[in-house]
Design goal:
Blueprint: H1 2-93, E1 101-103, E2 116-118, E3 121-122, H2 124-135, E4 143-149, E5 152-159, H3 162-166, E6 174-184, E7 189-199, H4 205-218, E8 227-231, H5 239-249
Parallel strand pairs: 3-5, 7-8
Antiparallel strand pairs: 1-2, 4-5, 4-6, 6-7
Helix pairs in contact: 1-4
GO biological process, one term: regulation of actin filament polymerization
Subunit structure: Interacts with 5-lipoxygenase (ALOX5/5LO) in a calcium-independent manner. Binds to F-actin with a stoichiometry of 1:2.
GO molecular function, one term: actin filament binding
Length: about 260
């Protein structure tokens, strides 16, 4: 009887254990299913995050392009404003008079068949006289300076002392200079000529832009020189630098060579 009761107890306990095992197995299966679902959700989140990152990078590139375009547009507007200012000033300064100079050539490698009306005039007689005076072997004059009086270029000074020549150029000036310098040694002395364009540091952007046109006008008269220099500071007005530029240039090229210090 006792053995029978023990068997019944053991049998009941085994059923209980088996039931618990079955529940654990079922729970484990559910947990695995839920883990798979969580894994899929995590993968989807990763994909979504990757797509968002790509969109952000794309927007950053677009913003960079927009900033670049904005900067280019600003620069273009500035250039248009400068050109407009030049045109406006030229229109206001221009008027029919004997000072307006008609030039049949463009002073460049391109030829022009029609005349171009310049707004800057020349005092031709005084400029030509000063030019020929500097070139003359019998004249003590070794330099001449040409400046603007209103809309005309005139000979403002001439002389033989280079120290005096240096004083002719101020920070507010636009000017041109023509010099005769003695080169060579005791055995071989020769005269060489140099043309300089002066644009002071305080000169406006518009007037700087007009200098190329104005220089072309005065070079109709001052056409014979070995070296041309563009000067913008007092330190560049140095006779040793001038002679060095002439030495480097070699023989005279009669206005075709340009050397910047």
């Amino acid at each position: 009887m006792e053995n029978e009761d023990n068997n019944l107890y053991i049998e009941g306990a085994c059923k209980t254990v088996q039931h618990q095992i079955n529940k654990l197995t079922e729970n484990q299966a559910n947990m695995l299913t839920k883990f798979d679902m969580l894994s899929k959700i995590v993968d989807e989140l990763r994909k979504a995050l990757s797509q968002v990152s790509e969109k952000i990078e794309s927007l950053e590139e677009v913003n960079k392009e927009r900033r670049k375009l904005k900067a280019e547009m600003k620069l273009l507007k500035s250039r248009i404003d400068d050109i407009y200012g030049i045109v406006k000033e030229g229109k206001e300064d221009s008027c029919p008079s004997e000072d307006v100079h008609d030039v049949e050539s463009c002073h460049s490698e391109f030829s022009c068949s029609s005349k171009v009306t310049m707004t800057t005039g020349l005092d031709r007689d005084t400029i030509r006289a000063a030019y020929e005076d500097v070139r003359s072997d019998t004249s003590p004059t070794e330099w001449a300076v040409f400046k603007f009086e209103g809309a005309r270029i005139v000979c403002s000074a001439h002389g033989s002392d280079f120290t005096e020549f240096r004083t002719q150029f101020s920070d507010d000036d636009r000017a041109f200079g023509y010099l005769r310098l003695q080169m060579g040694d005791e055995m071989s002395k020769r005269k060489k000529f140099l043309f300089v364009t002066w644009v002071g540091p305080n000169v406006s952007v518009i007037n700087r832009a007009k200098m190329s046109t104005d220089k072309a006008i005065i070079k109709d008269i001052i056409s014979n020189f070995a070296v041309e220099l563009q000067l913008e500071s007092q330190a560049e007005i140095d006779i040793d630098q001038f002679k060095d530029a002439l030495n480097k240039a070699g023989g005279a090229n009669y206005g075709t060579g340009v050397r910047d210090l």
